[in-house]
């Protein structure tokens, strides 16, 4: 009888651990879904912008975008890239290097 009791209590313990693990998995899934909801919300932001029709039409033609919002996103990305390049170019002559361009190119890592 004692071995049957131990066997039953072991099965009950396994079942209890399984239920706890299942509940924990569901809580983790909920947390992931909750986090993804807020991450997506922070990445995209709605904005109402007034743009002249001819400028928007020209932008759509130049970017070959399928929608107005994607054309505006492309234009913003290009503008930001251009500003970064200008910032890097403005540092020309202000940085000092210990090695020449050839030494850097053929540097063994």
Number of strands: 0
Seen as an oligomer or otherwise, the chain set is single chain
> What portion of residues belong to β-strands?
under 5%
Main sheet summary: none
Could you walk me through the main structural features you see in this protein, from its secondary elements to its overall organization?
This protein is mostly helical and 109 residues long. The chain has four helices and no strands. The protein starts with a helix and ends with a helix. The mean pLDDT is 78.
Secondary structure elements and their pairing?
Elements lengths: L1 H42 L9 H11 L4 H23 L10 H5 L4
Keywords:
about 110 residues
In short:
The protein has 109 residues and is mostly helical. It has four helices and no strands. α2 packs across α3.
């Amino acid at each position: 009888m004692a071995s049957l009791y131990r066997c039953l209590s072991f099965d009950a313990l396994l079942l209890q651990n399984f239920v706890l693990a299942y509940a924990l998995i569901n809580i983790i899934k909920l947390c992931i879904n909750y986090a993804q909801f807020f991450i997506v919300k922070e990445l995209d932001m709605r904005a109402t912008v007034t743009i002249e029709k001819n400028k928007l039409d020209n932008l759509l033609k130049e970017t070959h975008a399928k929608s107005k919002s994607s054309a505006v996103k492309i234009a913003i990305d290009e503008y930001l890239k251009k500003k970064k390049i200008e910032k890097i170019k403005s540092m020309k002559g202000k940085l000092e290097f210990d090695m020449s361009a050839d030494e850097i190119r053929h540097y063994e890592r």
